[in-house]
Specification:
Length: about 170
């Protein structure tokens, strides 16, 4: 009976040592800065990279549309807006605002108004005129037409540069 207990104990000890060595080998293979739990669960940065890959086209789009100036965004619901319309509007506005900082994306007429609620964003009915755009340094107005179940059409209107005061056309 005593010999059986020592064999079981020996096997348990060897198994424990093998598990610890396997963990150390995995950690060394992946680098000293990678925690073992991250190696087993997957790379936590990869999840962030996947999100960034999805958002990169919006960043590029916002920079190209703005051409170094603030822009105005309008949302026109041709049909009753869906949750997908609201999410698309919020994604373009919020990500575009991040990508263009310190430039602005105006979705309301007042300088101190910021919308973060996607429903309010779509239903704000902001419609900047040429004078308002000139006063705010906006040279492009981007209009999102929301229709159907999930359709979103984007139209960009380029405004002529504003003239300095006192100069006639």
């Amino acid at each position: 009976m005593h010999k059986l207990d020592s064999t079981v104990a020996r096997r348990a000890l060897v198994s424990g040592i093998l598990i610890v060595l396997a963990g150390m080998t995995i950690q060394q293979a992946l680098g000293p800065d990678v925690l073992l739990r991250d190696a087993l669960r997957g790379d936590p940065d990869r999840h962030l990279n996947a999100v960034m890959e999805q958002l990169a086209p919006i960043d590029v789009w916002a920079r190209e549309i703005s051409q170094g100036n603030s822009i105005a965004m309008c949302f026109r619901a041709v049909t009753p807006p869906t949750d997908n319309h609201r999410m698309a509007a919020a994604k373009f506005y919020q990500r575009g605002t991040y990508a263009l900082y310190p430039l602005r994306i105006y979705v309301m007429p007042a300088d101190d108004q910021i919308l973060v609620n996607a429903e309010e964003l779509v239903e704000s009915r902001f419609n900047p005129n040429r004078q308002w755009c000139a006063q705010h340094g906006v040279q492009r107005v981007v209009t999102f037409y929301l229709s159907g179940a999930d359709d979103v059409m984007i139209q960009t209107t380029e405004l002529p540069p504003s003239r300095p005061g006192g100069i006639a056309p």
